[in-house]
Amino acid sequence: MRRLMPALAIALVACREITAPRVGTPIRPPSAYTAWWSQVEACSGTQGQFELVRWYESPDGALGPQIMGEWLPRHDVYLVTFVVSHQLDATVKHEMLHDLLHGDSDHLSPTWTICGL
Ligand SMILES: [Zn+2]
Predict the structure, then answer these.
(1) What is the pLDDT of residues 41-79, one digit of tens each?
(2) Best CA proximity match to 86, nearest among 44, 57, 65, 113
(3) How far apart are the first and last CA of the chain?
(4) Which helix (H) or strand (E) holds 41?
(5) What pLDDT does residue 26 have?
(6) pLDDT tier at 3 (50, 70, 90 boundaries)?
(7) How far is the CA of 105 from the centre of ligand 1 (A)?
(8) 106 alpha carbon to ligand 1 midpoint, in Å?
(9) How far is the CA of 7 from the centre of ligand 1 (A)?
(10) What span, in angstroms and rounded, lies between the C-alpha atoms of 38 and 41?
(11) What pLDDT score does 22 carry?
């Protein structure tokens, strides 16, 4: 149980649902992202189309206090600069799993635990 807490904490700060306009600059996903996508597909037992995801980099803090990433329908992922520049795979994979699950903003799928995201 204790070991689950860091993962849960990451999940809680990784995303949220808001309706305000997002601030972000379109970016090309770093090359590492394709491998991470395959890993999330494997652990989740799902498949998606990486090419459909549109990536945006947002200034640190622009998504809200302690918000590091956000997924929006249908395939938009916003990541703060800190996540992009430090290649924080846990946050990126978390948003990838949102895409593969077509949302699940409440993180109800057991896949979150299975994938450790
Ligand atoms: Zn999430």
Answers:
(1) 999 999 999 999 999 999 999 999 899 999 999 999 999
(2) 57
(3) 15
(4) helix 32-44
(5) 97
(6) very low
(7) 6
(8) 7
(9) 11
(10) 5
(11) 80
Centre of ligand 1 from the C-alpha of residue 77, in Å: 11
Q: What would the two tokens of residue 103 be? A: 């949302």
Centre of ligand 1 to C-alpha 81, Å, is 18
Q: What is d(CA 40, CA 89) in angstroms, rounded to the nearest whole number? A: 11
- Ligand 1 centre to CA of 13 (Å) is 8
Would you list the domain boundaries of the chain?
4-18+25-115
CA 79 to ligand 1 centroid distance, Å: 12
Tokens of 65: 């206090």
Taking the C-alpha atoms of residue 76 and residue 73, their distance in angstroms, rounded to an integer, is 6
Distance 42 CA to ligand 1 centre (A): 18
Q: Check whether 96 has a pLDDT greater than 80.
A: yes
Distance 94 CA to ligand 1 centre (A): 6
Ligand 1 midpoint to CA 31 (Å): 22
Cβ neighbours of residue 40 closer than 8 Å, sequence gap 6 or more: 93, 96, 97, 100, 115, 117
